[in-house]
Amino acid sequence: MPAITPVPLVVKDCLVQFTDSYEKAVSQVEFAPSSSQIQFTAVSPGAVYTDMTPATWVLNLTFVQDWDSLTSLSKFLFDNEGETLAITVEPKTGGATITANVTVTPGSIGGTVGTYATSTVALGVVGKPTFGVLLADDTETDTAYGYVA
User: Fold this and answer.
1) What gap in Å lies between CA 59 and CA 79, rounded to an integer?
2) Is-contact 142 132, C-beta < 8 A?
3) CB atoms < 10 A from the CB of 79, how many?
4) Distance from the CA of 1 to the CA of which of 70, 107, 108, 147 falls in 20 to 30 A?
């Protein structure tokens, strides 16, 4: 069995795009899964069954609040509350892209005196993210689903 050498992800020079790009306002972008262990124990000794629920996903975004710019991420999320929209995230420029449809929720308004007001939102992902992998010839493929762009 070969030893796999990882290429560690450092989130930098990132792309965060709905219809416009918002990476200049975002300090955290993270797709996070959540699942639970389920168990059934029968009356017969040793009859215990364990499984996992399918993961549900959220996209966590932390961003600086901007209520003065007409096209800010703060206003975009506020104006599109409840909408399901496509987002593209590229955690490192030139690397793999992740796309998903997310349900938009607005961020908070205001914060602590003497600091930049930030907000963190958890946008529900419809299904799960699609993860593309950049190939040597600069085409992108999704190894799990055979997608090539």
Assistant:
1) 18
2) yes
3) 11
4) 147
Token pair for 57:
């996903």
Among candidates 131, 9, 32, 104, which has minimal Cα distance to 141?
131
The identity of residue 27, as a single letter, is S
The DSSP line for 56-99 is: EEEEEEEEE--SSSTT-HHHHHHHTTT-EEEEEEESBTTS--EE
pLDDT in tens, the chain (149 residues): 999 888 888 888 889 999 999 999 999 999 999 999 999 999 999 999 999 999 999 999 999 999 999 999 999 999 999 999 999 999 888 788 999 999 999 999 999 999 999 999 999 999 999 988 655 555 555 444 444 44
The tokens describing 21, both together, are 């790009």
DSSP class of residue 2 equals P
